Amino acid sequence: MTPTASLHDVPERLAAELCAADRWLVLTGAGASADSGVPTFREAQTGLWARYDPQQLATPGAFVDDPRLVWDWYCWRRELIATAQPNAGHFALAEIAKLKPELRLVTQNVDGLHQRAGSADVIEFHGSIERNRCFDCERPAAGVPVSSSGPPPCPECGGLLRPDVVWFGEAIPPAALEAAFAAAAKAEVYLSVGTSAAVYPAAGLAEVAAAAGATIVEINPTPTPLSASADHVLEGTAAAWLPAIASTLVEAVS
Ligand SMILES: [Zn+2]
Question: For residue range 24-36, what is the model confidence (pLDDT) as tens digits?
Fold first, then answer.
């Protein structure tokens, strides 16, 4: 069954609240990319990599111990992500942002699919697997040819390049945190999409938005710790519900 807007009618009261609000804050997690065929950390552990625990590869310590192993794992993950395409949910969010130019989008995903679907100024909590930076001097390293023969040297300091993602035990980039929490404090609508909403500091965005009086909306196939306090829970996938929300907004302005 293909999920379509006709199968998912946005409840009338929610539709009115969404249409009236200008300042939206949207947080997306792994569920937003599920319909694009991006495997989660655990699902991705197949073939050669099945015997490795992602939580022991995606750490600074693992990179220090065996840079080549970690680099090669990321090369493989990059290949998986390169074959994925943005789904209807990604495109719908980009469309919603055209109607609601004050919308801010925060993602916990590193796959770059929001940007490929046309979303701009995405606040990346966990960085991007598409970029590299230096492990030592932390300078970004755009345009350095990469291959699966281990991490290339940093052109600035000769240190090793690493993917520009946030590893276990590392902090979310302060600029991303600041931008997200500033948006939460002003939000009229807070939309949690495809995330368990259980991990702080991301989980705190909903609390700040709720304290600011925002309508709290959750889209997820299964209940999360946010569900009980959300004003609206839309059970299902991002790829099904976000196009329904976009249609509701389009109909309201036409
Ligand atoms: Zn460097």
Answer: 999 999 999 999 9
